[in-house]
Amino acid sequence: MSTYTDIASAETALLANLDFEEVGSLAKAKAVVSAARAWMILRPESASDQSSSLQMGKEFVAEILISARRYVAANSAGATATTGTRFLSVTDGFR
């Protein structure tokens, strides 16, 4: 996973990997989780300088983070669910 130390790199990673569902990429979904978490920490709710101010809601990125986490959970569980112990018996075609 990447380490994001500034907002620009987190935003670039978010934009580059937002298509994780469309392309079916678990790696991109994990990158979105990391970038979104970093963005949420690095981006202030509001900022002001002299007579100007800016407010930005984090709800949209929070929704993307939730969606990416669900995608990772669903696809990681599916990958591990196919492995397991298989018991063979005479009725299952064991010779």
Describe this protein's structure.
The structure is a single chain. The protein is mainly alpha-helical and 95 residues long. It has one domain (7-45, 54-81). Helices cover 58% and strands 8% of the residues. The chain has 4 helices and 2 strands, in the order H-H-H-E-E-H. Strands 1-2 form a two-stranded antiparallel ribbon. The mean pLDDT is 83.
Portion of residues in helices?
Answer: 55-70%
Form type:
elongated
Q: How many individual domains?
A: 1
User: DSSP helix count?
Assistant: 4
Head-to-tail CA distance between termini: 47 Å
Which residues form runs of ≥5 with pLDDT under 50? none
Percent strand: 5-15%
Main sheet overview: 2 strands, antiparallel
Mean pLDDT figure: 83
**Succession of helices and strands:** HHHEEH
Strand runs, count: 2
Gyration radius, in Å? 21 Å
- The structure class reads mainly alpha
Helix and strand arrangement:
Layout: H1 7-17, H2 20-23, H3 26-42, E1 46-49, E2 52-55, H4 59-81
Antiparallel strand pairs: 1-2
Helix pairs in contact: 1-3, 3-4
Features:
mainly alpha; two-stranded antiparallel ribbon; 95 residues; 2 strands; 58% helix
Could you provide a short overview of the structure?
The chain has about 100 residues and is mostly helical.
